Amino acid sequence: MAVPTILLLVADGRFPAGAHAHSSGLEAAVAAGRVTDLATLDAYLRGRLATAGLVAAAFAAAARRAAGPPRPDQLPLSAADRSPAPPGSDGVHDRRSALALLDAELDARTASPAQRAVSRRQGRALLRAGREIWPAATFDDLPATPGGPHQPLALGLVGAAAGLGPAQVATVAVHATVTGSASAAVRLLGLDPYQVQALLMRLADACDATATRAARAAELPPRRLPAAAAPLADIHAEAHATWEVRLFAS
To answer: Where does 5-240 sit in CATH, by number?
Structure first.
């Protein structure tokens, strides 16, 4: 089956949401000597997939489900994404309540204040891009939290506006989990970009499996969504936030 062009556009690192400015913790891991070469980058990316990647993808897919069915001109693009919206999510009030609950649950799963701030900063940037590209979409359903919505929730609504389904949104979230750090590794460590790309290709099956698991988890109540944690990543995020000179915002 051909991959829908809209999916590629939303997943593209050049989508105007500021993702290129973030290393997703890799800069601090490199400074700490924990990522030094291709092998340690491989381990780092697999760790992110199992933790931050799974959580972000599940919450993005859940936000997409909470947004309800797409407009008639934006039908889901694959049979796997034709899952119905959860009961009671058709009305604006129910949609906003569901998204507010998801925001609170994701906040509770993000132990590092620095990572919470980064997630909301990226959510604001993604929301701004979504409003410009799809001005008729219901982005106002996102909770008006200080700092903006968490990035996975904004991604869920951008996916709804683009006509993507929950499984496709989960795929975009997982893709971003590994490609951002991989791109940063080329700049931070001077790694061969061809070898880094080959590494990403070897991770493709793991990415697909994580996205599938996340999309299935998104059908559960918010309190039962994945809560995989990476305490060392939290420590790195807090340390990185104190640096006066850094190449990446996170």
So the answer is: 1.10.4190.10
Residue 222 DSSP one-character state:
G
Sketch the domain layout of the chain as residue ranges. Answer: 5-240
Residue 218's SS3 state is coil
Q: State which amino acid sits at residue 81.
A: D
The pLDDT of residue 91: 59
Q: Is 242 exposed, middle or buried (0-12, 13-18, 19+ CB in 10 A)?
A: exposed
| pTM of the predicted structure, to 2 decimals | 0.88
Contact criterion met (CB below 8 Å) for 159 and 2:
no
Exposure letters 197-236 (e unless 16+ CB within 10 A, then b)? eebbeebeebbeebbbbbbebbbeebeebbeeebeebbeb
* CB of 11 closer than 8 Å to CB of 172: yes
pLDDT for res 93? 64
Q: For residues 66-89, give the mean pLDDT.
A: 52
> Following DSSP, what letter does each residue of 105-169 receive, concatenated?
HHHHH---HHHHHHHHHHHHHHHHHHHHH-TTS-GGGS---TT---HHHHHHHHHHHHT--HHHH
Give the HSE-up count for residue 120: Cα atoms under 13 Å, Cβ half-sphere.
19
- The amino acid sitting at 192 is D
**Distance of alpha carbon 100 from alpha carbon 160, whole angstroms:** 17
